[in-house]
Design brief:
single chain, about 260 residues, 2 domains, globular
C-alpha cells in the first residue's frame, strides 16, 4: 500500500489558513466560499500522530468576521499502489464554531494517525529559530535577495541546488517517479526562462515562524510568500511558497 492523504475543506467569508504539523498548507482570503482538497503527504514527516490546525480571520479590508464565516475540514486516505486513487478511509469531519464578536478569529485543531512507508529528513533536524541571538528577519532578507539575484541572473543551476532537497522530499512523499520529479523541477525553471522575473521584496514583509519554531519564511500582508515571480507581458504572477531552516551544527539558512 502507498498511503496518500488529502485534506478536504471548505471556507466561507474569511481569510483562512490550514497548517499540518504546524507548517502552512494553504492561506487564502475568500469573499464568497471555496471547497477544495489538497494532498498533505509532503507535510507528514513520518508515521504516527499528525496535527491539523485551521484558523479564519476577517476578510481583506474588513475588521470583523462575517456572521456566516466558517471552515470545515476532514482527512481522506487513498491507496496509490496501483497508480490510481483508491479510496480507503474518511477521517472525522470538523467545523469551526459560529463567530463570536468578542473573539477576532475562528479556529479548530485536531489530530489523526497516519501510516506512511517513508521518513522525510526535514525541519525536525533544525535549530529553534526563536532561541537564536541574531536578527532572523535580517538574515532571511539577505537569503531571499540571494535567491532573487540567482533567478533574475539566469543562474538556474544554483537555484536548483538549493531547491532540490525540498523537491526530493516532495517526490518521496508523493511516490513520484524520477521522470515525474524532474518534470516538476523543470516546470519551475521553464517559467523562469519564459519571461517570469523575481520581484523585489516589499517593505512591509514579516517573518512567519512554523514547525514549532524550526521554520521561517517572509510573508506579505496577504499572508502569502514574499518570493514571487511576475511575467510583465502577461501580467501573471507565481508565488513560490518556500520555507527555510538552519540544520543543527550549521549557521546558514537552507531551503526546505
Amino acid at each position: 500500500m502507498k498511503p496518500y492523504y488529502e485534506i478536504d475543506f471548505s471556507a466561507v467569508m474569511c481569510s483562512f489558513q490550514i497548517k499540518i504539523n504546524d507548517v502552512e498548507l494553504i492561506s487564502l482570503s475568500i469573499e464568497g466560499q471555496t471547497r477544495s482538497d489538497f494532498p498533505i503527504n509532503h507535510l507528514i514527516l513520518e508515521g504516527g500522530k499528525q496535527t491539523i490546525e485551521v484558523k479564519g480571520l476577517p476578510m481583506d479590508g474588513h475588521q470583523e468576521l462575517h456572521e456566516d464565516s466558517y471552515i470545515r475540514y476532514r482527512v481522506n486516505l487513498y491507496d496509490m499502489a496501483s497508480g490510481e486513487y483508491a479510496f480507503v478511509k474518511q477521517f472525522d469531519e470538523y467545523f469551526t464554531k459560529k463567530p463570536d464578536k468578542n473573539i477576532p478569529f475562528i479556529g479548530h485543531a485536531s489530530t489523526f494517525e497516519a501510516e506512511v512507508p517513508y521518513k522525510l529528513e526535514a525541519w525536525q533536524n533544525g535549530i529553534n529559530l526563536k532561541d537564536v541571538k541574531f536578527d532572523v528577519k535580517e538574515k532571511l532578507i539577505k537569503k531571499y535577495n540571494e535567491i532573487i539575484k540567482m533567478i533574475n541572473g539566469g543562474n538556474y543551476s544554483s537555484f536548483i541546488a538549493q531547491y532540490q532537497k525540498r523537491e526530493n522530499n516532495n517526490a518521496l512523499a508523493m511516490y513520484l517517479s524520477k521522470s515525474q520529479a524532474e518534470g516538476r523541477m523543470q516546470g519551475i525553471i521553464s517559467d523562469m526562462q519564459n519571461g517570469y522575473k523575481a520581484q523585489s521584496l516589499p517593505d512591509d514583509i514579516q517573518v512567519e515562524y512554523s514547525a514549532y519554531g524550526k521554520l521561517a519564511a517572509l510573508k506579505c500582508t496577504d499572508m502569502m510568500s514574499a518570493l514571487r515571480l511576475e511575467n510583465p507581458e502577461s501580467d501573471e504572477e507565481l508565488v513560490l511558497p518556500i520555507t527555510f531552516y538552519i540544520p543543527e551544527g550549521k549557521d546558514e539558512f537552507e531551503m526546505i
